Amino acid sequence: MLGPIDQHLDAFRQQRSVQAGSLIISLFGDAVLPRGGTVWLGSLIRLLEPLGLNERLVRTAVFRLVKDGWLEATTQGRRSNYALSDSGRRRFEDASRLIYAAQAPEWDRRWRLIFLIGELTAKEREHIRRALFWQGFGALNDGCFIHPGADLAAAFDGLVADGLGPYLKNLMPLQAADARTGLSASNKDIAEQAWDLGDLSAAYERFAATYLPLLVALSGDASAGLRDEDAFLVRTLLIHDYRRLLLRDPELPEVLLPTDWPGQRVRLLCKDIYRRLLGPSERHLDQHLSLADGSVPVAGPTLLARFRDDDPLLSLHRAG
Question: Which residues form the Transcriptional repressor PaaX-like N-terminal domain (predicted)?
Answer without folding.
Answer: 20-88
